[in-house]
Amino acid sequence: MGTHEHSHGHGHGHGHGHGHGHDRFSDEAATWDDRPGHAERATAVAARLRETLPLRPDMTAIEIGGGTGLLSRALVDDIGTATVTDVAPGMVEVAAGTLDDPRYAGWSARRYDIEHDPLPEERYDLVVALLALHHMGDIPTVVRRCVDLLAPGGHVAIIDLDHDEDGAFHQHLDDFDGHHGFTREDAHRWLEAAGASDVRLTDAGAVTKETEDGERDFPMFLATGRRV
Ligand SMILES: C[S@@+](CC[C@H](N)C(=O)[O-])C[C@H]1O[C@@H](n2cnc3c(N)ncnc32)[C@H](O)[C@@H]1O
Questions:
Q1: What's the rounded mean pLDDT across residues 74-92?
Q2: Rounded to whole angstroms, how far apart are CA atoms 135 and 22?
Q3: Which of 44, 89, 147, 202 is deepest in the core (most CB within 10 A)?
Q4: What is the pTM of this model?
């Protein structure tokens, strides 16, 4: 399975969740859902989550680095309510607009920097993050915070790029300062270190992307864990 995505150049970059770094994603927010591959990717990942986790219509979810909330919205028939969060104000604004629909009664979007903001008091039955962590800095800390957001019995699902040896996925960004994907061993270790139980790593499809060497598939993993 591959979902298509086209490269796009950027005149400015982003940092590790602070400073001018949010501009890129805020600027892209208005057209995010219409970019080739984006919605399809969220739909495909939602199907994987449905197969992998015991989703229930009374579940509360929080999406981390959720952008416009594509993944949460793809789960609307499977969960109760979702809080879509992102560090980029432009993304949060677009996410909030999409949730202004009776299907999403009780849902909300808010700005939240998982790396630097204090942990909120609420706890959730489901914490999801799709292609978000590789844009952050200290990943073991972010994974721990994701697990800390879980209510007892809750599930965390992190979907991200497998380790991209030659950095081809982000080659179009001159000043990319995130991670070129992660090894599944690292993801497993970080979740266990954060106290998650039943940690599992499985395939989550691929992002098909135009690179300097033509079209390539970049595989993704799904890392899940549970809080007892
Ligand atoms: C590649 S986009 C993915 C968006 C969405 N999950 C999707 O799949 O369409 C990565 C997102 O992570 C967000 N992000 C980066 N650092 C963050 C942080 N420290 N806290 C919260 N969100 C962050 C960015 O603003 C951006 O919206």
A1: 98
A2: 11
A3: 147
A4: 0.92
